[in-house]
Amino acid sequence: MTQSTGRPTDAVDFHSEIAPNFHASYQSDANRLERVRLWSDLLDKYAKPGQFAYDIGCGSGVLACEMARRGINTIGIDGARGMLDIATQMAKSAGLTNIAFQQHRLPISYTKDFREADIIISSSVIEYLESITEALVFLRNLLKREGVVIFSVSNRDSLSRKLVRLIHRLTGRPKYFGLLRHFMTIEDIQRDLHASGLVYIEHAYFGRSDRINRLLSIFVAPKFSSNMLLVVAQKI
User: Fold this and answer.
1) Bigger pLDDT: 5 vs 24
2) 2 pLDDT higher than 70
3) By C-alpha distance, which of 204, 231, 215 is closest to 159?
4) pLDDT-derived band of residue 45, with 50, 70 and 90 as boundaries?
5) By the number of CB atoms within 10 A of the CB, which of 75, 110, 169, 234 ranks highest?
6) How far is CA 20 from CA 13, 27, 159, 176, 231, in A?
7) Residue 71 gets which letter from DSSP?
8) Which pLDDT score is estimated for 5?
9) For the packed helices 62-69 and 30-46, what is the interaxial angle rounded to 10 degrees?
């Protein structure tokens, strides 16, 4: 649903509409390719064949299919029908039989009927939700004891993010910035993990493959030259 200004007011509808272009960006966009490399490295570290996993806010299914290729039984969940249509076709084309997709608005309030997972991934999703703590509790409730969750959020310390936020306030572009509710630091995340009953394990920064952040990375630490913050936590 959109206002007369053309600015999106609903993250689900917006991402459903942009699904084809979003999926295509994984073929050439440097930051998307960097994202896949980093997530693949973390899956090498934390995921094992035969495990059961969720990809929460799976989008067009790129990372969900990556888990399924590793022999992980995977369910991708997203609210955007357009994204799920692409994800389903992608899994079918790859011959993946250990993956399924479900449409739900996030966060899901009642999870008792959901199977508990060994691992959950959630790429750049929870910053669109109303409450980070509520979102993390939702993820924790889907995990087995000692299960691992890997998620990413927009990095508030990013210098280029600060610039783009200013540009958005002046111009309304890029449109999706009007849907982002949270920009987080690692200190913010560690506080919210504690409040939600999850234990911090590690974090990394990514999203510095574009021209501005590549230049910034020569002069400043990754904390300031990366658009995204990726966090690993565990249910104890």
Assistant:
1) 24
2) no
3) 215
4) very high
5) 75
6) 13, 12, 29, 16, 28
7) T
8) 42
9) 30
Residue 134 CA from chain centroid, whole number: 16
All domains of the chain in start order, with CATH: 11-235 (3.40.50.150)
pLDDT tens figures, 173-191: 999 999 999 999 999 999 9
- Angle (nearest 5°) at CA 29 between 170 and 1: 50
Closest CA to 84 of 179, 19, 150: 19
| Paired tokens of 137 | 């509790």
Q: pLDDT digit string (tens) for 105-147? A: 999 989 999 999 999 999 999 999 999 999 999 999 999 999 9
Sign for the pseudo-dihedral over CA of 60, 69, 115, 192: negative
Q: Are 90 and 65 in contact (CB under 8 A)?
A: yes
Looking from the CA of 140 toward its CB, the CA atoms found within 13 Å total: 19
Q: Where are the alpha helices (DSSP H) in 70-185?
A: 81-93, 132-141, 159-171
Nearest-10 Cα torsion for 205, 35, 159, 216: 90
pLDDT of residue 1: 35
- Judge contact between 77 and 51, C-beta under 8 A: no
What six digits make up the tokens of 215?
């230049």
The CA distance from 235 to 80, in Å, is 28
Q: Tell me the pTM.
A: 0.93
CA distance 54 to 181: 23
Distance CA 34, CA 126 (A): 20
